[in-house]
Specification:
By secondary structure, the protein is α+β, with helices and mostly antiparallel strands. It has helices spanning 24-39, 72-80, 110-123, 142-147, 172-175; strands spanning 6-9, 44-49, 54-66, 90-101, 132-138, 151-152, 164-170.
Length: 176
């Protein structure tokens, strides 16, 4: 990440700086909801900031990948990543609930840097025992997540009218 950008964990006393990613829902979550989510232990938000403004933010929370979330072929691939004795009906994951980059800082690789940071955060000292990173990707963000190694959890979701598509990244490929 850029040298003058620091990563801070959102605290209740954090004073928000200027931020606009161009998506009202993502702006509103940060400025109106993120502190309440943290207080209710629903998610943790990290902010990338300079002295002047918020560059980007992301929120993470616990998640899991389970049979109902995926199509059968994808579930077989996920199960094949583990020895038979370790097969389960679900596997632990961390969900990126929100990720947004300020419009002023777009197209500088910051979003990809954030994904790399999240991946590293959860494989370093295996903080939560998760094997995957999941995201409900907005339709327009799907190519970005694909470029960063994410795959569809349920390929049939591509054909639906939903605004989002559940995707996953296999963290075990970074430690094997």
């Amino acid at each position: 990440m850029t040298d003058n950008i620091r990563v801070v964990r959102l605290a209740q006393d954090y004073e928000f700086k200027s931020f606009d990613c161009g998506n009202q829902d993502l702006n509103s979550f940060l400025l109106s909801d993120s502190k309440a989510y943290a207080k209710r232990l629903l998610s943790v938000t990290y902010i990338l900031e300079t002295d002047e403004d918020i560059v980007a933010y992301f929120s993470v929370s616990n998640d899991k990948i389970s049979v109902p979330d995926s199509d059968k072929a994808t579930w077989r691939k996920i199960k094949s990543l583990f020895p038979h004795s370790k097969h389960r009906s679900d596997y632990p994951a961390v969900k990126i609930g929100r990720l947004a980059v300020n419009g002023k800082y777009r197209n500088n690789g910051i979003g990809s840097d954030i994904l790399d940071f999240v991946k590293d955060l959860f494989i370093t000292d295996n903080r939560t025992g998760c094997s995957f990173v999941t995201v409900d990707a907005l339709r327009e963000a799907i190519p970005f997540y694909q470029k960063n190694g994410f795959k569809y959890l349920d390929k049939t979701a591509i054909e639906t009218e939903s605004d989002t598509c559940l995707m996953y990244y296999d963290l075990t490929q970074l430690v094997d």
